[in-house]
């Protein structure tokens, strides 16, 4: 006779761990400013100043959001003299961000449904 433990897929524990990791990543991506920064960084490394000017945000806001991305191990830094460059740590994440950029930000992309519209 099978017990309850026999009904659990042996790969389920690994899937649960990966789902937890994916959930944490998606939480980090769910902030509009962080997502915009990552869209910039998927094209290559940038300085804080470049990100500030491109997004029209104050340095304090940019630094705060980059610190969160660093804490979540999504971005890394490289110092060159007085400049600090940020880049995306994982090439697969850069690819995912690139897909999101193409879907939602690329001017030549087909329009996406407005997710903020009230549901009828």
UniProtKB/TrEMBL annotation:
Q: Which GO terms describe its molecular function?
A: DNA binding; DNA-binding transcription factor activity
Superkingdom classification of source: Bacteria
User: Which intervals hold domain HTH arsR-type?
Assistant: 16-108
Transcription found in the keyword field = yes
Q: Which InterPro entries match?
A: ArsR-like_HTH (IPR011991), HTH_ArsR_DNA-bd_dom (IPR001845), Metal_resp_trans_reg (IPR051011), WH-like_DNA-bd_sf (IPR036388), WH_DNA-bd_sf (IPR036390)
Which keywords label this protein? DNA-binding, Transcription, Transcription regulation
Supply the Pfam families for this chain.
HTH_5 (PF01022)
Sorted alphabetically, which NCBIfam families does this protein's record hold?
HTH_metalloreg (NF033788)
Q: What protein does this entry describe?
A: Winged helix-turn-helix transcriptional regulator
């Amino acid at each position: 006779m099978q017990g309850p433990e026999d009904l659990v897929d042996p790969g389920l524990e690994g899937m649960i761990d990966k789902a937890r990791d994916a959930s944490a990543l998606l939480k980090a991506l769910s902030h509009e400013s962080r997502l915009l920064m990552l869209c910039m960084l998927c094209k290559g490394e940038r300085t804080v100043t470049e990100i500030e000017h491109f997004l029209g945000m104050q340095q304090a806001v940019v630094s705060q959001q980059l610190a969160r991305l660093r804490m979540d191990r999504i971005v890394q830094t490289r110092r060159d003299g007085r400049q600090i460059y940020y880049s995306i740590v994982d090439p697969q994440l850069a690819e995912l961000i690139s897909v999101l950029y193409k879907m939602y930000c690329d001017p030549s992309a087909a329009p996406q449904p407005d997710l903020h519209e009230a549901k009828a």
